[in-house]
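# step 3/5: fold
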Amino acid sequence: MFESLSDRLGGVFDRLTKQGALSEDDVRTAMREVRVALLEADVSLPVARDFVKRVTAKATGAAVTKSITPGQQVIKIVHDELKMVLAGEDGIAPLKIDNPPAPILMVGLQGSGKTTTTGKLAKRLKDRDGKRVLMASLDVNRPAAMEQLAILGGQIGVDTLPIVMGQKPVDIAKRAKQQAALGGYDVYMLDTAGRLQIDQVLMDEVAQVHAAVQPRETLLVVDGLTGQVAVEVAQEFDAKVGVTGVVLTRMDGDGRGGAALSMRAVTGKPIRYVGLGEKMDALETFEPDRIAGRILGMGDIVALVEKAQEVMEVEAQERMMKRFQKGLFNMNDLRGQLEQMQKMGGMEGVMGMMPGMGKMKKAMEGSGMDDKVLDRQIALINSMTKKERANPALLQASRKKRIAKGAGLEVSELNQLLKMHRQMADMMKKMGKGGMLKKAMSMMTGKGGGMPDPSQMDPAALEAASKQLGQMKGMPGLGGMPGGLPPGFPGMGRKK
């Protein structure tokens, strides 16, 4: 979503950091480019103008231009101001669901993804917060809208209010309120009807429901791909019925991201969640400092760790770590690491969250590589016998031909995989002896006191750390890429 903006800003800041000493004219020139980049990303003109004005005022002082690392100081100021634009002065308070049964009213235009978002949020509250949730559809107009929510409820294990045909939305809301109280639910979510545009009928209906249940939260669901139209919709809904927060959907698309940057500044309402795909777990809390870090190419290490914690089975990882510390790393171990990377969104997904990896990601895309390389490598490992996976040293010419043929690939690709395995085995042995592996595992499992806040770290230090990681030959998809493909991948996974 923010890729084009991130690329533009990255170019501006690269020039700043390479200049060494900065004059006030250098900063002002850079800020003009930042303003153009924001406008091209569909940020509203007043927001872009105010943003650049505030950054320029802070960045042209002697404390910045005369400092040892002026370029990095400017980046830090831009990061902090971006965070302010996204979060507002008061920050983003948690959902008010502390007084059961807490009603959450979901509103928005038709086609914005309101029903799916209702299911996603219900699943999140159930799985992450341990809440008992009841969902109810108030959409009596759209065909099969109620059935859609009931089906979603069955998929995610969340109760839905039994459908009674012929009831008005306000009566369904009252019945949901009563059912939630009698059934001991913590939260009940009301999925209202939408329209193709805002009209008086829609607003009257939402206002009646609002008066009947007095929701603790009224969340507006808007399509992030509509750009500034999403901001205008938020303003109108807030003026007529009042909203407490916004959910931006389709933020995994190729929109320019201006709505996210303008929403808080223009409407005063926080963005609470962003939808990042069709799957029912593809909903994330909106974290302004981390979004700002992604925009500025600092990555999102916290999100990467959270993703790892979600997909990894801690006991299995601890067993594997003990093997690594003993210097044991066979093909079964490698397959486990590749499969885990797939669950975390593949090489592109992981690299997108690592600081300083934006350029490497671009190099990977330019080389014609994609995440099918992981599928091909796993296919090769699956084509081996149990003995061969446990002891790759057994693989001689005849066995290699059989394995490659079984996977429908070339022997040269198997040789590259074996080379990568040897490099990873050596690296794991070194990390195990130095204690680095244990520290990494502690952070991934949440036992090491958590991750440092990337926003508080020096951007240059972050990039240097990521480059150092990139030079650890053999890491699948991460080995030094500035000149092309990482070690272990030449010729593999090219798009056909």
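# step 4/5: annotate
Strands lie at 102-108, 133-137, 159-160, 187-191, 217-223, 245-249, 271-275, 283-285.
# step 5/5: archive (pending)
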